[in-house]
Amino acid sequence: MDVTIYHNPACGTSTNTLALIRHAGIEPTVIEYLKAPPDRATLRGLISRAGMKVHDALRQKGTPYAELGLGPDMPEDILLDAMMAHPILINRPLVVTPKGVKLCRPSDMVLDLLPEEPLPDFIKDDGEPALRDTAVTGDDAGLLAALAVADLPTYDLSEPGRAFFAFRSLFGELLGYGGFELYGEEVFLRSLVVLPERRGAGVGKAIVARLARRAFDLGGRRLWLLTTTAVPFFETIKFKHVDRADAPASILATRQAQGLCPSLAAVLTRPIYL
Questions:
Q1: Is pTM, for the whole model, over 0.90?
Q2: pLDDT at 262 exceeding the cut of 80
Q3: 3-state secondary structure 92-140
Q4: Which of 93, 103, 117, 188 has the fewest CB atoms within 10 Å, counting from its CB?
Q5: Does the annotation count 261 as an active-site position?
Q6: Which residue among the candidates 11, 57, 207, 268 is catalytic per the annotation?
Q7: How confident is the model at residue 96 (pLDDT cuts 50, 70, 90)?
Q8: pLDDT for 23-40, tens place per residue?
Q9: Which Enzyme Commission number(s) are listed (predicted)?
Q10: Is the confidence at residue 263, as pLDDT, over 80?
Q11: Annotated domain spans of the chain
């Protein structure tokens, strides 16, 4: 398989993505885009083929994004001009294979572009396992059993507007489940459970990152959740506690906020980071 990665060796996500490609037995063409940036037409084409808007492909952290006054409402030509003048604004890594183009954040999103075959498990340099996800329905027996063991709500899983996934290691071991409800840009995370024997190994953090990206690709931009027991965990991955009254109406109207979760459940939120 021919694979090309637009790579920044100083970026942990980019180096993990490159390592995953090689882990799959593929030696890609590596383009260090800060040294050899793509031309304007190539960059626009890559972003379009990835199914993204130009702003979605902009890197904000550690770049002149703010000082240049860039924003999501600016014309795409102006954003492209900025990316041409400042290649550090190009988010990374962009990966191209015969299966498509993707901005691989988190790094294991690259698995969507590689052959679908079991691989030895892979641990990223931050200690998280690389995951594969598979969509499941709300009546999936494994999902129901895992939620019951974790004492999480199951009454509304088959109602419209929910998306659920099973998460496995690269070799195929089931690690956990998670899902979300999408309300425009607001994403209500729910039904997140790591199987007991795999807790404490970075699986929960990895699942949240995968769910956030799946929601982002559908237009979601901010995560919300309710929890009575896991506030410390979510605070470690940059969620902030907010008063229930400050949550959007769409989140307060969810079945969990309306009664499936106790009224004392904490409300946590954070933007989706790419």
A1: yes
A2: no
A3: CCEEEECCEEEECCCHHHHHHHCCCCCCCCCECCCCCECCEEEEECCCC
A4: 117
A5: no
A6: 11
A7: very high
A8: 999 999 999 999 999 999
A9: 1.20.4.1
A10: no
A11: 4-117, 129-271
